[in-house]
Structure formats: structure tokens, C-alpha cells
Write a structure and sequence with these properties.
10 strands, 11 helices, alpha/beta, five-stranded parallel sheet, five-stranded mixed sheet, 282 residues
């Protein structure tokens, strides 16, 4: 019989948030794969748990090489527990490769649900939560970051991002440039920890605040694009939206069609606006 892969959520701050089942899994797993074995040691000490199985590291640098080893353990019948530094494995953390490999081998994969910075920040943001999408970390290079943001400029769902504190001001400034200075957002810092803070406001205002320096683990929640009707979009705005999509890699025909759907307009109207703008530029 094959074994079982268990993905376990760990506290994002307050140790008291550890799921009760986590203790049992730490005690009984045959193998514990940890993103940082030192952090795992601190976690087990805080929980008063002695790991019952072999502990090994599983992080971004060795994920590809170590996955086959763990799959071999699983095919041999082992119960493998995967934990990351905070939150759920695979969500901007190691885990995806191992899950995919286990699924391919028809190995059972289950989870110990636990804390999630994504859902916690979303709930605290004060922004719509009925529909949302998680975008993870943005690229570090300015040009690539702007390009990625332009791809979702018209996204109406609430957006959730992770960001490093030393890049937060640049990211918020880029968001204000692409999404609009007045787009509402929330910066959630040090969630569930002693110095937890949720700063809400327009993107431009938050960018000015972040420029003074911010510390800690950061999750950014951004309001989705507003729903607009034909009467709210002039020709210049239609052309701008088409160009944003073209810069993100879409063909002009596809960009025009997408903008027409967003604006609730016939494609011909958007096409004519683009042609007129091109003639004016020439």
C-alpha cells in the first residue's frame, strides 16, 4: 500500500492558532518535510511535541531534487507531513511539486487546514470578499511588475498580493499608477502577531505612508476594478485600455474585443476609437 502526503497549516503569527490535529501529525508522521528545520524545532518546542519521524529540509533550493526522494517514501507506505514556515504549504511556499508528483503516482494527499494570510487579510480588509483572486508576489523588476499589474487592470474581483516590506512603497506606487490613485486597498502587516496593523485607504495615500518605512510580513488587498457603463468611458479611455492590454502581450483584435466586453459596447465602437487615435498620433 502507498502512503499518505499530509499538507499541514502552521501559525502565521500566534502559536495558539496551531490546528489541534497538527500535534498528532507531528507525533505520528514517518517523515516530516520542513521548509526550515530550525523553525520547525521552535514550533515543536512551543507546542510541547516530539517529532516521531525523520525530519528533513524541503525548501525552494532543494525542492526539485528532494521531491523524488519523498515520493519514494510515499510509494513505500510512509506518511509524509509537509510544513512550511507559516500558513498552508503550496500557497507561495514549497509544496506544489510534491503534490503534483504524488497525484501522478495516485498517492493519497490530504490536509490539516490551518491559518492563511490570504484569507485573514481578505477578511480584515473591509473590501468585497464575494469574489477574489490571489496573485502571490509581484516580480521584483519595475518593468515586469508594471506589466503584471496591467494584465489585471480591468479585473473586477478583489486582488490579494504578498510583498516584502522593503519593496512595499514601490509596489503601492506602481499599483496607484496602473489601477488609479483612488483605488481602495488595505495593507495588512504582522497578522495575528503582537504588532498587527491593518492600514486602509486609497493606493496613493498608502504608497506615501509606506515610503516612510514598513516592517514585518505584508499582505496587500486591492479593490477590484469598478464596473463601468458605456456612458462612463470616453474614446480616450477605451484606447488607453486597449493599449494596456497590448503592452501586456494581447493582440490588438483580442484587446479590442475584451475592452468592448468590459465597457458593454459593440466592438466597432472600440475599433473606431483606436483607429481615430492612431490617425491623430500620425
Amino acid at each position: 500500500m502507498t502512503g499518505t502526503l499530509v499538507l499541514a497549516g502552521t501559525p502565521i503569527g500566534d502559536i495558539a492558532d496551531a490546528p489541534p490535529r497538527l500535534v498528532k501529525e507531528l507525533e505520528t508522521a514517518d517523515v516530516i518535510a520542513a521548509e526550515d528545520t530550525r523553525r520547525l524545532r521552535r514550533l515543536t518546542q512551543a507546542l510541547g511535541v516530539t517529532p516521531g519521524g525523520r525530519v528533513l529540509s524541503y525548501f525552494e533550493g532543494n525542492e526539485s531534487a528532494r521531491t523524488p526522494e519523498l515520493v519514494e517514501e510515499l510509494t513505500g507506505g510512509a506518511r509524509v507531513l509537509l510544513v512550511t514556515d507559516a500558513g498552508m504549504p503550496s500557497v507561495s511556499d514549497p509544496g506544489y511539486r510534491l503534490v503534483a508528483a504524488a497525484v501522478e503516482k495516485d498517492i493519497r494527499v490530504t490536509a490539516v487546514p490551518g491559518p492563511s494570510a490570504v484569507l485573514t487579510a481578505l477578511a480584515l480588509s473591509g473590501l468585497p470578499v464575494d469574489r477574489f483572486c490571489f496573485e502571490g508576489f509581484l516580480p521584483r523588476k519595475a518593468g515586469e511588475r508594471l506589466s503584471r499589474l496591467r494584465e489585471v487592470a480591468g479585473e473586477r474581483r478583489t486582488l490579494v498580493y504578498f510583498e516584502a516590506p522593503h519593496r512595499l512603497d514601490d509596489t503601492l506606487a506602481a499599483m496607484a499608477e496602473v489601477f488609479g490613485a483612488e483605488r481602495r486597498a488595505a495593507v495588512c502587516r504582522e497578522l495575528t502577531k503582537t504588532y498587527e496593523e491593518v492600514r486602509r485607504g486609497p493606493l496613493a495615500e498608502l504608497a506615501d505612508w509606506a515610503a516612510q518605512g514598513v516592517r514585518g510580513e505584508i499582505t496587500v488587498v486591492v479593490e477590484g476594478a469598478p464596473e463601468t457603463g458605456p456612458e462612463e468611458l470616453d474614446a480616450a479611455e477605451l484606447v488607453r485600455r486597449v493599449r494596456v492590454r497590448e503592452e501586456a502581450g494581447e493582440r490588438r483584435k483580442e484587446a479590442i474585443a475584451a475592452v468592448a466586453v468590459e465597457a458593454g459596447l459593440p466592438k466597432r465602437v472600440v475599433f473606431d476609437a483606436v483607429v481615430a487615435a492612431k490617425r491623430a498620433d500620425q
